[in-house]
Sequence to fold (223 residues):
Amino acid sequence: GDSVTQMEGPVTLSEEAFLTINCTYTATGYPSLFWYVQYPGEGLQLLLKATKADDKGSNKGFEATYRKETTSFHLEKGSVQVSDSAVYFCALSMNTGNQFYFGTGTSLTVIP
Amino acid sequence: DGGITQSPKYLFRKEGQNVTLSCEQNLNHDAMYWYRQDPGQGLRLIYYSQIVNDFQKGDIAEGYSVSREKKESFPLTVTSAQKNPTAFYLCASPTGRNTIYFGEGSWLTVV
Fold:
């Protein structure tokens, strides 16, 4: 079935370090791919998305490119800030319906 | 502003009690979902509803019940049959166009 696998956490980085959180997917068709962010004690917010192969989603300095050949959607940011500390979820949705599949989340802590 | 409102933010349940978590949306979406999140864990689907007056069990429905009498509302009842209810509960609603919105969540603790 359709699923998402993302990098285990927790991840701890110093401020201004480079961030990569890996995400790979399994899908029978052509999904849309998402990264959601969850700040402590809050719900999930959409960070970025890509709806077809080779699309790049970007927002707040974060980027992810939809790679069909490697079935991946890795999240990157060139210089993280303390305020980026949160849990990041990779997700996919098949374009035919309302079903969403979430990864287990990766906790990021950025230290000054 | 359109969105999803969950209440209460914090709720305490005594052993053997049923409690109900509220979820209201003014987005005019047909579908609504309930997820459970345990500390350090991902999301697990409890129940979902694709349209008013209809709902389906998710992966961990045992010990929970829902109703969908109105399009805007999808309350979740945590029954006494749920043996380990302490968790963070998230209500969500997909747009039908590959986006899903979440409420702010409700913390339930058994005392």
